[in-house]
Amino acid sequence: MTDRDREIYRIVEALHACDDKEYRNEVFRSRGSDPAFHRAVRIHRHLKALERELLDIDHHGGAEVSLGVDPFSDQVVLDIRRNNIRCRRVAYLNETEFSLLQKNQEITSVLRRCRSRKKVA
User: Fold this and answer.
1) How far lies 91's CA from each of 37, 49, 60, 106, in Å?
2) Which of 112, 87, 114 minimizes the C-alpha distance to 102?
3) Are 77 and 68 in contact (CB under 8 A)?
């Protein structure tokens, strides 16, 4: 992992941990022109969307979640199938993104119950 990648994931982790919208807006104003910051925001939004979808599945059911590892890229493959609306979402996450996703205990419990070819902590 490069220094730039480390910086991006530090920002993602800070955004992920921050619930204060005023602080987040201040950070946006101060780092708005930084390309690494924009990449971090995209990753953060992607992870938040996955969290919302997994929590929705946990509360309403009607879906299957499976985890695997892509043999070509060694990325974690999160496959969410919603059979009631015939929808499927496949997300590819690197190990850092997957560990950030697992910091939410509710998400970890959902992932532990899914069909898995990858060990969930």
Assistant:
1) 21, 11, 21, 18
2) 112
3) yes
pTM for the model stands at 0.80
Query: What's the token pair of residue 108?
Result: 């970890």
Write the DSSP assignment of 78-120 as a string of letters: EEEEETTTTEEEEEEE-HHHHHHHTTSHHHHHHHHHSEESS--
Alpha-carbon distance of 93 to 76, in angstroms, equals 5
What are the strands of the beta sheet with 115-116, ordered from one edge? Answer: 87-93, 76-82, 63-69, 115-116
Rounded distance between C-alpha atoms, residue 48 and residue 13, angstroms: 12
How large is the greatest C-alpha to C-alpha distance in the chain, in angstroms? 44
The residue ranges of the chain whose pLDDT is under 70 are 19-32, 58-62, 115-121
Three-point CA angle 66, 70, 76, nearest 5°: 55
